[in-house]
Predict the structure of Polyphosphate kinase.
Amino acid sequence: MSQRYFNRELSWLKFNNRVLQEAADTNVPLIERLRFLGIFSNNLDEFFRVRYATIQRILRAGKNATKSLGGVTAADLLEKITAEVIKDQAKSFEILNQLEEELKNENIILVDETEILPEHEDFIRSYFNNYVSPALATIMVSEESDFPTLRDGLGYLAVRMVMKDDTLPVRYALLEIPKSLNRFIELPSIEGDKKQYIILLDDLIRDRMHYIFNIFDYSHLEAHMIKVTLDAELDIDIDLKKSLIEKISRSVRDRKDGDPVRFVYDKSIHDETLDFIMSKVEIDDTDSIIPGGRYHNRRDYLKFPSLGRTDLLYNKEIPLPIKGVSMRGSLLEKISQRDILQYAPYHTFSNTIKFLREAALDPKVLNIKITIYRLAEVSQIAASLINAAKNGKEVTVSIELQARFDEQANINYAELMQEEGVKLIFGVPGLKVHCKACVINREEDGKIVRYGFISTGNFNEATAGVYTDYTLFTANKKILKEVDKVFDFFEVNYKLYRYKHLLVSPHSLRNNIEKRVRREIAFAKAGKKAHLRMKLNSFSDFKMIELFYEASNAGVQVDLIIRGICCLIPGVEGMSENIKVISIVDKYLEHPRVYQFYNDGDVEVYISSADMMGRNLDNRVEIACPIYDESVKNEILDTLDICWNDNVKAREICSQQLNSYVSLDGEPLRSQFATYDYYKNQL
């Protein structure tokens, strides 16, 4: 096999195909399957806004980037992506049709404008007049008029009116489907009828089009949905007189004027309407043009109503307390006695909030330093930090203003914290701050004692309920002294900082991982057991892949759990026969990064927010934290074992990229459910 890497973008599409598998899986509750369809669609939108747009920029700039694109030209890659997306989109429409049939079997009926019952007509008329009409933008368009700028990701109904007077030209209009309204409208129950009826907002608008366009004397009226996706790359102003907040705020505002990268349309649209719109939107042959079904923006299925049908949803598992850690009393006192591991969402995220709330109130706490990448819309983390500043603590926050698609939210919080006296650091020039860490200094008996936590995920209450992430709470002096050094680097980044315990990018993360992989290679060549195991979101760094191939050829057993992109090709004789890769997509989004090195029996374990990607290893500030506490280390290894032995939701990543489920040997083991039981049994 001559190919040494999977292409990154095509590998990502294979990941999104695994999400689509969840929508098709009849063992997943029905409404959850609809929501997986929404995740699939939302993922695809972001993919086009970022990755497809980047490749398009490479093509338009005339760059030869075949090496970075995995041996394919930008033009060929754009074609392959579009072909793969069209195939997955067709599959998603099949799944949606199947799901609608299954909903009918559950007495949940989706009606369109041709199926509205007489009992619902008054409600629909009233709903349209009171809620939809005030929010609905109706734009008449013609060959002569300027065409409006289509907003990224919004759905539009392209309207075609054929006039009764056939000497008059066909008229066109655009109806912008209001984003502020729920896409799924529950219709009133009908007495004696057990069915629950839902109409999509677009179909409700279709039903009222005769009212919208009643000033025109037309013979025929039709509407088909279209959507554009725009390039979401931020172009940062280089004006030195502007602050970083000003520059990024301006870039976020300008994003709405980005170039189109994808155009999706209802394939039953009239040819004349399609030609007219495409000529006005200025779609070119490098854009992805996707013929689709009647409904777009299926990401809205993420918010498909539950309808009180708990039987069609996953059971809501109550997050567990950490063994021996109560919400009462001092968390800092418990951390002073031992390291504590929080594994959300199996454990409650409240421990993170409690840590900061306690630090905000404790008179002995002098200062708090924390990195922030993404915050919840209503953030108790931010509130605790502001509270600490009001209590006279010195609070330092390194906030990443360029967290993709959360830029404006982070700007808003940055300005709020700044007003309340929080000291803000806006990262390091040229480097995103992606690490997740906090350290506090507390005065105890005339000495400064540090407490802190390092996490694999964001300090975000909203995502903590659906993302799996480890957080280590520790008072380990060696670790926290070096976390403090990382904050020093944020402020004085021309100095070279050395770390003995943490692996920190861009300084030492890559080199130290390479060193540990080479150590396993040496053990294998010496005839000893050699084993590497990593759990990652993505693996795309070619240099690191080549090192893992070298390890495989030396006899090192390499086991990888990779949720998303995997450019490494496993199981190829003479290249990677000792490498096995699985991917788990299930109820929760697998998010932690863990590195495990066998080290001749003296096992080393690190947790991190860094994937094996060039951007994480070289162009971001990342931390990989060693796990020194044996109890915590064993806990992480136990949960890794559970994950590795999943034979229900694990897919094998193979050279053919088939996304086949791991063969079911022995008793079924669904790792996310088994992990919850593991922690429940500890109590």
Summary: The chain has three domains: 8-303, 331-491, 503-682. Confidence is low (pLDDT under 50) at residues 234-245, 251-255. The radius of gyration is 27 Å.
